[in-house]
Amino acid sequence: MRKLTYYIAVSIDGFIGDPSGDATAFERFVDEEFLAFLKAEYPETLSTPGRRHLRIDDLENRHFDTVIQGRASYGVALGIGVTSPYAHLRQYVVSRGIKESPDPAVEIVSGDVVAKVRELKAEDGEFGIYLCGGADLAGQLTGEIDELVIKTYPLVLGSGMPMFATDFALDEFTLESVRTFGNGVLVRKYDRKP
């Protein structure tokens, strides 16, 4: 069974972006040390244009071979003319509004997203599924998330887009590791408690 991993950047107070979802405030923390970590540990989570810009498009995937993201997250790429933001992964975009994919490498999921994720998790393979965001999609998939990788940036936003847009529920996870960086960033990894 493949794992679904919610790999996400958040503020200290648990927001993945400002009220509109804009997360550009976090970008200044991607310094040399933190970028080296991303390239070594999670290179497939960097977008294809970003990988090409950094001249690391040849790095092999370490954790994921599939990405699933919501319409708003995909919209960030579309806004800059990128129709295949993770060309090095199988790409799924959950949207009821997009009727036809703008790119043959991107499959639109307009039906039951939980069923689709369960289908993907049931596939054979050594790599997992990267849940790229956003809050609404994470809220729909809370019960399917096997692992959390939370990059916490040393900022308090006060309000904004939460990690999960969902009704109240208790889902328990076990802390597996914490890594700290000189710029104040923490990367915590949690596994769903059995």
Question: Please, could you describe this protein's structure?
Answer:
The chain is of the alpha/beta class and 194 residues long. It has 5 helices and 10 strands. The chain has an 8-stranded mixed sheet. Strands 2-8 form a two-stranded antiparallel sheet.
Tell me the layout of helices and strands.
Blueprint: E1 4-11, E2 15-17, H1 32-41, H2 48-53, E3 64-70, H3 71-79, E4 90-94, E5 106-109, H4 113-122, E6 128-133, H5 135-140, E7 147-153, E8 161-162, E9 173-180, E10 186-192
Parallel strand pairs: 1-6, 1-7, 3-4, 3-6, 4-5
Antiparallel strand pairs: 2-8, 7-10, 9-10
Structural class: alpha/beta
Distance between the termini: 15 Å
Physical arrangement of strands within the biggest beta sheet? 5-4-3-6-1-7-10-9
Order of helices and strands: EEHHEHEEHEHEEEE
Based on CA atoms alone, the radius of gyration comes out at: 16 Å
Mean pLDDT: 95
Relative strand content: 25-35%
* Number of helices in the DSSP assignment: 5
**How would you sum up the global shape?**
globular
Which oligomeric form is depicted?
Answer: single chain
Number of strands: 10
- Unreliable sequence segments: none
**Helix content bin:** 10-25%
Biggest beta sheet summary: 8 strands, mixed
